[in-house]
From TrEMBL:
<dbReference type="InterPro" id="IPR022742">
    <property type="entry name" value="Hydrolase_4"/>
</dbReference>
<protein>
    <recommendedName>
        <fullName>Serine aminopeptidase S33 domain-containing protein</fullName>
    </recommendedName>
</protein>
<dbReference type="Pfam" id="PF12146">
    <property type="entry name" value="Hydrolase_4"/>
</dbReference>
<dbReference type="InterPro" id="IPR029058">
    <property type="entry name" value="AB_hydrolase_fold"/>
</dbReference>
<feature type="domain" description="Serine aminopeptidase S33">
    <location>
        <begin position="69"/>
        <end position="174"/>
    </location>
</feature>
Length: 329
């Protein structure tokens, strides 16, 4: 049953655009470029080898006066060709380098998308940042949108000197998107709920507060007779859907719980009326992100000062101890 359920969850996790919205080719001088995208001398295109045996596309958007580098893991229904305008905006408004990538099976990346392939993918991208650009953990902010929160928290739970983490419309786990279970099953995917307590840097959570009514419906999955024979007669899969919206929308309770479990909380951004795929269109999105980046810069300077003084004086940090109260919808 576990394997079947995990397989169902995986099918609901990945929706690569078909056909891809771009291609990659090599110019005469050997430089990799995107097709269909205006050339930008401040964007490097890479083809990276992963531990999963795939080649993935990664792009490094350089800012001449960057304060930090943002490693961006996008959502489950987009590829890099669709993220172009957003990266231009983020680079300009936040004064950051941006490293982005397509998961295995997305865009011009080879292979098939899977949970573990996304982990191999982000590890390859991080190694590129470290080896090709000399980016230190202390100067790196990880950003995960939707399913991208999975590889983001996978890496963040292993790197203990990161500057910060941003979780945008993040999920608690794959099965919890389908049904709000209280325990984590071994066959679950993207077990973010178990990984976020291991993250040692400040965490910003951005999530939409949709006013639409959420309802649960039971859906019996049509499976081959051989598969059904191995299952008990009362197996039913539950899916969370929203009236009037796509069925892949993640409830705001996922973001709320992730924020509660974070060791070092930063003021969250709850976007009233925001959906799963449009939060970046709200003016408070860039404003709050800029505030977070500025805070991380001050946090970095404070740590440097502490190290230079070599005293036991602790850095004064703003703690967010007030409980957020949410009315029932």
């Amino acid at each position: 049953m576990g394997n079947v359920t995990a397989s169902v969850a995986a099918k609901f996790a990945f929706f690569p655009p078909d056909p891809p919205t771009y291609d990659v080719f090599r110019e005469e001088e050997g430089r990799l470029v995107f097709s269909g995208v205006t050339a930008d001398k401040n964007v490097d295109v890479h083809l990276l080898d992963t531990k999963g045996g795939n080649k993935i596309v990664a792009t490094f958007w350089k800012h001449p006066f960057a304060r930090f580098t943002l490693l961006y893991s996008h959502g489950n229904a987009a590829d890099l060709g669709q993220m172009h305008d957003l990266f231009i905006e983020l680079r300009a408004h936040l004064r950051l380098n941006i490293m982005s990538y397509d998961y295995s099976g997305y865009g011009a990346s080879t292979g098939k998308p899977s949970e573990f392939n996304t982990y191999y993918d982000i590890e390859a991208v991080y190694n590129c940042l470290k080896n090709e650009y000399g980016i230190r953990q202390e100067d790196l902010i990880l950003y995960g949108q939707s399913v991208g929160s999975g590889p983001t928290l996978h890496l963040a739970s292993r790197l203990h000197k990161l500057r910060g983490v941003v979780l945008h419309s993040a999920i608690l786990s794959g099965i919890r998107v389908l049904y709000p279970v209280k325990m984590t099953f071994w066959f679950d995917i993207f077990k973010n709920i178990d990984k976020i307590p291991k993250v040692n840097c400040p965490v910003l959570v951005i999530h939409g507060l949709s006013e639409l009514v959420t309802r649960r419906v039971a859906l019996l999955i049509c499976t081959p007779k051989r598969t059904l024979a191995r299952l008990s007669a009362d197996v039913v899969y539950f899916f969370v859907v929203r009236t009037g919206t796509n069925d892949d929308i993640v409830d705001w309770s996922h973001g709320k719980r992730l924020w509660e479990l974070a060791k070092e909380k930063y003021d969250p951004l709850w976007v009233k009326g925001g959906g799963h795929c449009n939060l970046e269109t709200y003016p408070e999105y860039i404003k709050h992100l800029r505030k977070f980046i500025n805070a991380m810069e001050k946090h970095s300077l404070a740590k440097q000062t502490k190290k230079q003084l070599t005293t036991n004086t602790s850095i004064t940090e703003v703690k967010h101890n007030k409980c957020l109260r949410f009315g029932k919808r």
